[in-house]
Amino acid sequence: MTDDLPPHPALLPAGFTDLLPPDAEAEARLTETLTGCFAAHGYQRVKPPLVEFESTLFAGSGGAVAEQTFRFMDPESQRMMGVRADTTPQIARIATTRLATAPRPLRLAYAGQCLLVRGSHLAPERQVAQAGIELIGPDLPEADAEIVTVAAAALAAAGVASISVDLTMPPLIPALLGNTRHRAALIRALDRKDAAEISDLGGDLAATLRALLEAAGPADSGLAALAAIPLPDNVRPLAERLAATVSAIHHLAPDLRLTIDPVEFRGYRYHTGVAVTIFAPGRQAELGRGGRYLCDNGESATGITLYPDTILAVAPHSASAPRVFLPHGTAPAVAQTCRADRFATITGLHPVADDRAEALRLHCTHLWHDGRATPLEGS
After folding, report:
1. Which of 151, 219, 318, 321 is deepest in the core (most CB within 10 A)?
2. Can you tell me whether residue 359 is helix, strand or coil?
3. Dist. CA 59–CA 298, nearest whole Å
């Protein structure tokens, strides 16, 4: 039976793929560009392990990704371990343990791979690359603004200058609804932006909820609409904090395109303040996501994660280094000179009848001939 046959060697599990040349090199260069920009803004790189004990991996904000985490028994300690599905909880752990005495605000950066139990319809990949920053310490609009503008600068350095930043306040709707009747149904209606059902189920809150729904859009007009909505005393500070963050972002990056959505809180189970999603205009894919949260020890932090795999699809592709074929017997000093001139050198390992044909066969762009790197027509 065919079921007993081993899978083809090139067949991979759903959600996994081999990244081949030149895409693997392009992703590596992109990640270097992003992390280089993070470093230029004072964010220091850390490297957490791929695997941790699940008791620490799921502490604090890590509990929000428990269902997406691959788990296994560690044969050494006989304790359950997990493969990270998100890097942010690990950075929070490092900040509050290994770097607990480091001065605040603490700025940390990271880049690495994560593993998910399942992908989504729009993003079926289960191994995903992440590159991000975390700012641990002050709970201030200026800190929220900094992570947004640093992420925007990193994307611009990668060639993605046109972005849209959507700002939300995930605690706002839960605080407004409280224990109101039909809470679960109203949350579903808000998720679907269903104004009719909100009117049917909202009772005394219906008008406020509809007004919040209509406030979504460009930040300036949305905040003006939000300021005009009568909100309870426990909710108004959340709206004001959203407005203060927008103002702080405008101060740092006046031309950055901002939108707000006061009723959006799907997928932000651990966020305690302003949350952000970055899009490329005209595309549904998220280039990055982040927001404010609490570390396991209660310390406030904010951060953002960029997704190199997605960014790679929208960023202009930088050209790979030109490849020069060095015929067998070429002096090593020639190869060093070519590499100093930013060529990738492909050295012939044995004599061939036609060096030019061999260079083309190996996808070279140049051939070392008559003491110089000569461009190859048809390469």
Report:
1. 151
2. helix
3. 11
